[in-house]
Design brief:
- The structure holds two protein chains of two kinds.
- Chain A is α+β, with helices and mostly antiparallel strands.
- Chain A has six domains: 136 residues, no CATH class; 134 residues, no CATH class; 44 residues, no CATH class; 165 residues, no CATH class; 176 residues, no CATH class; 170 residues, no CATH class.
- In chain A, strands 3, 5, 6, 8, 9 and 10 form a six-stranded antiparallel β-sheet that branches. A two-stranded antiparallel sheet of chain A has the order 1-12.
- In chain A, a hairpin with a 7-residue loop joins strand 13 and strand 14.
- The radius of gyration of chain A is 35 Å and the shape is flat.
- The N terminus of chain A is likely disordered.
- Chain B has 13 helices and 19 strands.
- In chain B, strands 1, 6, 7, 8, 9, 10, 13, 14 and 17 form a nine-stranded mixed β-sheet that branches.
- Chain B starts with 9 loop residues before the first helix and ends in a 15-residue tail after the last strand.
- The chains are: A alpha+beta, B alpha/beta.
- The interface between A and B is large, with 106 and 101 residues.
């Protein structure tokens, strides 16, 4: 968009937002309508609401564009639609008068008065100010939201209403709630008992049940502010971030595998999860939290940009351009959709192929957002250590010292033994990361590497290095040094850019620059050196970048020759230990070192490690937080098809949200993300604060004031308490965007402290409890259920942060295979937020509890009840193990007395004592079948998985 | 830990004896609670907005049978999914011109680059095509037994897919969307219709005995629908996860513990009178008990006659064929017991490209020589058996794969690359025309050119046969009214009987 036009558009939108349909000063032009008809007031709404759904945009129906005067007078396929002063010649009027327009299914027939009004307007000269371009979005209609949609207007702080329930009300929240209840003649519920409040607050804020001791302590605390202090203590707990971080991870679809067919784990995605937990624990102001996730690389929080690439990513290489562009477009769609739904509660993704059907978001807006992210790519980023500059300065010296140590160490590498006894392997097994074959110095002009078996498929070698036997060894295999490569064949006849013969000696490592044979399980590659030279070792690897472990040569030989054909075998893999998939890489095992040199060897290895650790690269930390590059132009894609680019769209905001910005085409990549972050976090943004307080409300009460926490648009429903929502939004901003301040406010309210017991009369009026006449009891999510089970058994490991545990057996298959673990230990007894989060696949016991699989955003979890949940809690290996642990704990803590055991088990599982009947039945059960049977029953109790 | 299936469910039997629980619970819930649940799922709102028809879900029995939108032609679906992209050119789509021009460049597409790279020349099928059945439909020798059933089949030769990659391709065939995270067709159907069968899941996915397909559980996921509608996955080798009571728990202890849990749960429900979720939770433990009885029964293939077992190939010397045969037999037994939707997979991906599935990039002939027989005899037996038992009157059979393959070989290989531009699926059974071919690809089988159809159309047609209007079967997720067919899809009227 040219700047001047963009500027005008901004002015327009600002005008519209300020006073919809109102008079604008620029209207007072020469062709102003007669005093009794005003274009903006009397005509524009008719056109906008009845015509523009089809007659606007890049491809208006019948080529008739009714958004501007020129479009109407020029007309479309049927000729001029509007002839000023001549109603009878204006097709537009003709069609609406006949009822032909709007067509069936697109709108209602215009009322007689409306048709007359149009006729009068045309007769009077069809005054339509030159600059006035109608937007189909100006007004909300029955079918779609316009710019006047409630959530697009800035929140206005309402007066806190007066309520008749003065004794009940504790803070302003309660006044709003009580007022709404009073309108329906409903009463709020009384406060829940102390034990219930404790259990509710603990699960709510930290996701764990209270221990029996905590219950005793809280019930014994007679101070009037006992509850307030409880809330403060919980808010200060480091486990708060684990509970609420998990909520946020749902919202942003954070997963730790790629999804799609390979679905491989991302080993370094977890730092984003830790960041979220930390940022919430520290109560970062929300705009800061937004900025860090969109542009943490510019704000000292590098790992936070894991947000951008937290979604799925199809890693399968596609050779045709359509497929590649589609994959890329999907990645960008994921980034912008996640951003728009999580922070703004708008479904911008729906405007990918055409203007949004229900909200005022254009396809152009979509692509302006896409341009923000156009330079972001999936992948790991190297994060520099704090002393990086110092390391860089030292690097030349360190490298020199390291090379010297490595040369000395190579003397210890056992020589390959050709033709020795097969039963005495003395060298390390082959490993995909790299292998050294050392042999006595030999003169060579040709070297050949022949594979006769692999662990899978055709063999792959990413680089073959041949070193000279001299004090400063050189790799003479390099093509850049004049060497030439030949081979028995090349994968796909060299058609794949990744796997070509020239990659064998191009000095570049990794699967993307490798040679693959044309033959399953075999093939050879040979290097002709520029001149005969003494060599004494060959280095080769499958993938030095450690991404692939298949296609590894497991049987091979290395030959040297001075003249063609005169091959001598210098090394084979036969004297290596047999290949196993889980072996560690070891080029130097040290086991063949003679004892008199053992000390020397040991100190050299230590020195090598010390030096290697000082390299700049060694201090780098890989984090799956995306990579950034200056992008090319972004174009609007016709029908969202990457093969049909149209006009350029530069980075910018969603116009309808106001305070709009639009950047130049060459704006640096990071500036785009910063601009977006500032725009979202601006207090003038009508959505950001509302979306956040609504989310908090959703998690506290199981249902947001707007029931769709990530969609405050047309299909998102209306708030049950609009004034309360706006009051909370403005309160949030006033309190410096502090999330914890909002928790405090909500949890100290009388509304939150209500009992959850049913009230028949209230249920008859408001069965869904939308008005909150009681606290809504509900089932726990998968994570707190698992955590609570471990808590009751006493096995919960509360280590904070770091790589997650894997609920599945490990494997290196190209298509990752997810085989659930059958037994668990302390590593897996951590809180479930630390479970490595695969996509599609679910935890074998707890996934069934409506756990989102991180493929799509999950702003609200379902609560469904299934027979498989019952089977999992009854019979899964995890539960059987934990039941055993729980019983063991009960026996240890309660001693031999069965009654004491039963009471202890109840207190640990349900945070209460059994009543008499329960105790009697529990004792009978435990006496007949052991306390383990009782523990199993308690784990399956509804009360265990529900919070009152 | 190993789990042994022992005579399950003392607890189950006792619970089952306590008759009428579901009825009681449902009666006490009343319409108000139901309205609450539906409203929570946005269903009531949806109806007023666009004419969606919310399924009448009883919260205490969410899998109870429901009425479709209009009179259905089919009540159950069997979807046979050949994972890895089974070549239409070597099975069902006869192209004499391709046979003739073997070895020549494909006119107009000499420089084509597809999924794995540049295309080579046209390659005839290594399998002969000949007329089959009464209708004389030309099918290849790769699948002779299935081919002989051509009179039962309604071929759609003009299907197109949106992706040329297995993951997104499988996603689209099973969920309608190429991207991850959407509900599978089986989940949509269970959500819409529930099940006639009250002691087995409404939707069962039967993975190949070799492993799961490329995108695994995404094929039977409930996506953002409630978990109760997801496919339960098991096959003749691997029972339902956590179904059996672990051997270390004695039957009497199992019963006693479950009885005590029931006591606690009844008392808890009494404290929350009218809470439909809690009632549903108690009911779910009863359903679990029923499942512990019925799932081993349905999986017990020894109850079949020797003749039936032989017809399927259950005891075949080829363990892969025998494994698929057992899965086919299991599929029939599930359908017999009223399971609404059975998704039966042929092929798995864990073993790599072409080895365990239909992804014949490099050595199509040797791959397909291996896979053809595994599919052919058992699947043909299944179709014949369904017909012989009169089950095709109510059961719609859909044979499908994620996309087709190229008429050309890949450069440097003797196999075909991915081709989403045109491929074949077939329908059989309830409500579809017999011995019919609909749509066509071009003379080489590269692109659909006649009655070009989409996966949306296929899904719309399947739903239509089940009495469901694909435009009115919706679920509101994050404020967007989602459909199996997104915003697309037309029922293919020409295939309806």
């Amino acid at each position: 968009m040219p700047r001047a036009r963009a500027h005008r558009r901004r002015l327009w939108l600002a005008g519209i937002a300020a006073g919809l349909g109102g008079l604008l000063p620029s209207m007072a032009l020469a062709d102003a309508p007669p005093p009794n008809l005003d274009f903006n007031r009397d005509v524009a709404p008719l056109l906008v609401n009845n015509c523009l759904a089809c007659h606007s945009g890049s491809d208006p129906a019948g080529a008739l564009d009714l958004t501007r005067r020129a479009g109407a007078t020029t007309g479309g396929d049927g000729g001029p639609a509007l002839v000023a002063g001549k109603p009878d010649e204006s097709i537009l009027l003709d069609r609406v008068r006949d009822g032909e327009m709007p067509p069936e299914g697109k709108g209602k027939r215009l009322a007689g008065e409306e048709v007359d009004r149009l006729a009068r307007w045309i007769a009077a000269g069809a005054a339509w100010p030159e600059d006035r371009v109608l937007s189909p979005y100006e007004f909300t209609t029955e079918k779609r939201a316009g710019l006047d949609w409630w959530s697009l207007r800035p929140p206005v702080r309402p007066t806190v209403p007066a309520s008749a329930h003065t004794a009940w009300v504790r803070n302003s929240i309660d006044s709003f709630i009580a007022q709404a209840l009073e309108k329906k003649e409903l009463e709020p519920s009384p406060e829940a008992d102390r034990a219930t409040l404790l259990r509710r607050a603990k699960f709510d804020l930290v996701g764990l049940p209270p221990s029996p001791e905590e219950v005793d302590e809280f019930l014994a605390d007679a101070a009037p502010d006992a509850y307030e202090r409880l809330i403060e203590r919980l808010l200060a707990s480091s486990h708060y971030g684990e509970r609420w971080g998990r909520h946020w991870l749902d919202v942003v679809r954070f997963g730790e595998t790629d999804g799609y067919e390979t679905n491989k784990p991302r080993a370094n995605a977890w730092p984003y999860r830790d960041y979220v937990i930390r940022a919430l624990n520290e109560d970062r102001p929300w705009p800061r939290f937004i900025l860090e996730q969109l542009a943490g690389d510019q704000a000292g929080e590098d790992v936070a940009t894991g947000f951008l690439v937290g979604g799925t990513h199809d890693v399968v290489g596609i050779q045709n351009i359509e497929g590649q562009l589609q994959q890329r477009a999907n990645d960008l769609d994921d980034m912008l959709s996640a951003t728009a739904t999580s922070f703004l509660g708008v479904s911008a993704g729906c405007a990918r192929c055409h203007d949004h059907k229900f909200d005022p978001i254009t396809q152009r807006d979509y692509h302006a957002l896409q341009a923000i992210f156009a330079g972001v790519r999936h992948g790991e980023r190297d994060l520099k250590p704090d002393d990086y500059d110092e390391r860089l300065r030292e690097e030349p010296d360190v490298r020199k010292a390291l090379a010297a140590v490595e040369r000395r160490l190579l003397d210890f590498e056992p020589l390959a033994r050709v033709g020795g006894p097969a039963d005495a392997p003395h060298r390390a097994a082959v490993h995909p990361l790299g292998n050294v074959d050392r042999f006595s110095p030999t003169a060579a002009r040709f070297v050949r590497f022949t594979v006769s078996a692999t662990n899978q498929s055709e063999p792959c070698v990413d680089e073959l290095e041949i070193y000279t036997a001299e004090s400063s060894p050189r790799n003479v295999a390099l093509a850049s040094a004049g060497a030439k490569a030949t081979a028995s064949g090349v994968f796909a006849d060299g058609a794949s850019a990744l796997h070509k013969l020239e990659h064998i000696n191009d000095g570049r490592f990794g699967n993307g620059q490798s040679w693959i044979s044309s033959q399953v399980g075999g093939g050879w590659v040979a290097i002709e050196l520029p001149e005969p030279v003494e060599i004494d070792r060959v280095h080769w690897a499958r993938d030095r970048e450690a991404k692939f472990a298949d296609r590894l040569a497991t049987k091979y030989k290395i030959e040297a020759a001075l003249t063609p054909g005169d091959w001598r075998v210098v090394a084979t893999g036969d004297d290596r230990r047999p290949y196993t998939a889980d072996a560690k890489p070891e080029t130097l095992s040290g086991e063949t070192v003679p004892s008199e040199r053992a000390a020397e060897f040991k100190s050299l290895v230590a020195e090598r490690e010390r030096l290697a650790a000082r390299l700049p690269s060694a201090g780098m930390r890989k984090v799956y937080a995306g990579t950034f590059e200056q992008p090319k132009e972004t174009h609007r894609l016709h029908r969202g098809d990457p093969m049909q680019p149209r006009e350029e769209v530069t980075a910018g905001s969603i116009a309808a949200l106001g305070n709009a910005f639009s950047l130049e085409s060459d704006t640096p990549e990071h500036e785009r993300r910063l601009a977006l972050a500032r725009w979202i976090g601006d207090a003038r943004n009508p959505l950001t604060a509302r979306v956040l307080v609504n989310r908090l409300w959703h998690y506290h009460f199981g249902r947001g004031l707007v029931a769709t926490p990530s969609n405050l648009g047309f299909h998102g429903g209306h708030p049950s308490h609009p004034e309360l929502l706006d009051w909370l939004a403005t309160e949030l901003i006033e309190r410096g965007w502090s999330v914890k301040a909002m928790h405090r406010l909500i949890m100290l309210s009388a509304t939150y402290r209500q009992a959850s017991r049913p009230v028949e009369r209230a249920a008859a009026v408001d069965a869904g409890n939308h008005l909150l006449w009681r606290y809504p009891a509900r089932r726990l999510e998968a994570e707190p259920i698992r955590d609570a089970i471990l808590r009751a058994s006493g096995r919960l490991v509360l280590d904070v942060g770091g790589p997650g545990y894997d609920a599945f057996e490990s494997n290196n298959n190209y298509v990752h295979v997810y085989q659930p673990r059958q037994s668990f230990g302390p590593a897996e007894w951590r809180r479930m937020v630390y479970q490595l989060k695969p996509r599609v696949v679910q935890d074998a016991t707890f996934g069934e509890f409506d756990c989102p699989d991180a493929s799509q955003v999950a702003p609200r979890r379902n609560v469904s009840t299934t027979a498989l949940q019952a089977l999992n809690l009854l019979n899964s290996p995890f539960m059987v193990e934990q039941t055993r642990e729980f019983a063991e704990r009960v026996r240890t803590e309660a001693g031999e007395n069965v009654s004491a055991q039963a009471r202890r088990a109840f207190r640990l599982a349900l945070a209460r004592e059994p009543d008499q009947e329960e105790l009697a039945r529990a004792v009978t059960l435990a006496e007949a079948h052991g306390v383990q049977a009782l523990c199993r029953a308690l784990y399956n109790a509804s009360e265990f998985v529900y919070v009152d | 830990m190993t789990q042994r299936a022992h005579p399950l469910s003392h607890a189950g039997r006792r619970l089952l004896d306590r008759r009428g629980f579901l009825g009681d619970a449902a009666a006490s819930l009343g319409a108000i609670a139901l309205a609450g649940l539906l409203e929570q799922n946005g269903l009531l709102a949806a109806e007023s907005a666009t004419g969606s028809i919310p399924p009448a879900i009883n919260p205490a029995a969410p899998l109870g049978a429901r009425t479709p939108h209009f009179a259905p032609r089919a009540k159950q679906v069997l979807m046979i999914f050949c994972s890895g992209a089974c070549s239409h050119l070597d099975t069902w789509d006869y192209k004499p011109e391709l046979q003739k021009r073997d070895g020549q460049p494909m006119p107009g597409f000499e420089k084509l680059v597809t999924f794995q790279g540049p295309s080579g020349n046209l390659a005839r099928s290594p399998y002969e095509f000949r007329p089959r059945g009464q209708c004389g439909k030309h099918c290849s020798d790769l699948l002779p037994n299935l081919a002989e059933l051509a009179d039962e089949m309604c071929f759609i030769h003009s299907l197109t897919a949106k992706s040329n990659t297995h993951g997104p391709g499988e996603n689209q065939m099973s969920t309608g969307f190429t991207i991850e995270g959407f509900p599978s067709i089986g989940a949509w159907v269970s959500y819409a219709l529930g099940s006639e069968c009250d002691n087995l899941p409404a939707f069962v996915a039967i993975p190949d005995t070799r492993g799961v397909p490329q995108t695994g559980p995404a094929n039977w996921s409930s996506g953002f629908l409630p978990a109760v509608f997801q496919g339960t996955s098991f096959n003749s080798q691997r029972p339902i996860l956590n179904l059996a009571v672990p051997s270390e728990i004695a039957p009497a202890a199992d019963t006693a513990a479950r009885d005590f849990a029931r006591l606690l749960n009844d008392r808890h429900l009494a404290r929350h009178a009218g809470d439909s979720e809690l009632a549903a939770r108690i009911a779910s433990y009863e359903l679990a008990a029923k499942l512990q009885l019925s799932a081993p029964e349905v999986g017990d293939l020894s109850r079949e006659s020797a003749a039936t077992a032989d017809m399927y190939g259950v005891n075949d010397a080829n363990p892969l064929l025998a494994g698929f045969a057992r899965n086919c037999l299991l599929a029939r037994r599930l359908l017999e017991r009223g399971v609404r939707f059975v998704q039966l997979f042929n092929g798995a991906y864990a073993m790599g490209e072409g080895v365990g599935n239909w992804d014949g990039h490099k050595q199509l002939k040797s791959d397909y020589d291996r896979h053809g027989p595994i599919l052919d005899k058992p699947a043909a037996a299944l179709l014949s058996d369904l017909k012989a038992r009169g089950m095709l009157r109510d059961t719609l059979v859909v044979w499908t794969t994620e996309f087709g393959r190229m008429p050309v070989f890949q450069v440097g290989a003797k196999g075909r690359d991915h081709n989403p531009e045109g491929f074949t699926v077939w329908l059989a059974g309830a409500g579809v025309k017999r011995a019919t071919s609909y749509g066509a690809t071009d003379e080489f089988g590269y692109r659909a050119v006649e009655n070009v159809s989409t996966i949306y159309d296929l899904h719309a047609t399947i739903l239509h046969l089940l009495g469901l209007d694909h435009r009115r079967l919706t679920f509101t997720h994050n404020g967007a009214e989602r459909r199996l067919t997104d915003v697309h899809g037309h029922v293919i009227g020409d295939v309806l009987a």
